[in-house]
Amino acid sequence: MGSNELGNNGIDFLSTVADFKILTELNCENFDLGRDGIEFLLKCDLSSVNIINLAGNDIGDEELDLILRLVIKPITYLNLENNRIGLEGMKLLSKINLESIRVLNLAGNNIGVEEIELFSKRSFKSPTQLNLEKNKIYNYNEVINNLY
Question: What's the pTM value of the predicted model, to 2 decimals?
């Protein structure tokens, strides 16, 4: 369902008619979800989902708090590229169990060195792929190397 303008009304409709129990991948890239769309997703049974793509949805720290409620079981892929995640969102991410994550894409957000240090303090070594490009990290390679 990625890259369309389904928006909040479409997600609300889907949350009432679709059987999400068998869904293993949630791809809502560029949906213009907003807070209401994420709240509608919370009504769905996403217990089988292990891949979540919410890139390009103008998601900030407040919405990230809701999104993390979607993660009811260990997931392997989380794409939050091109949103507005900053310090508070990174604090939230650093508090949850991300041990099963293999791909974490946080490119194009409001993440700086202070936010990255939250991960290094908790020995965040799980992802085989961690994308932090297009953030406020000026010494990107050095910061990434220090994480591992």
Answer: 0.82
- Whether the CB-CB separation of 53 and 32 falls below 8 Å is answered with no
pLDDT of residue 57: 92
Tokens 């392997």 sit on residue: 76
- Compare 132 and 10 and report the one with higher pLDDT: 132
Q: Is 11 helix (H, G, I), strand (E, B) or coil?
A: helix
User: In a 3-state reduction of DSSP, which class is residue 38?
Assistant: helix
Nearest-angstrom CA–CA distance, 119 and 107: 15
The model's pLDDT over 50-69, given as tens digits with 9 standing for 90+, comes to: 999 999 999 999 999 988 88
State how far the Cα of 16 lies from the Cα of 34, in Å rounded to an integer.
18
From CA 29, how far away is CA 80, in angstroms rounded? 9
The beta strand positions in 1-123, using DSSP E, are 25-27, 51-53, 77-79, 103-105
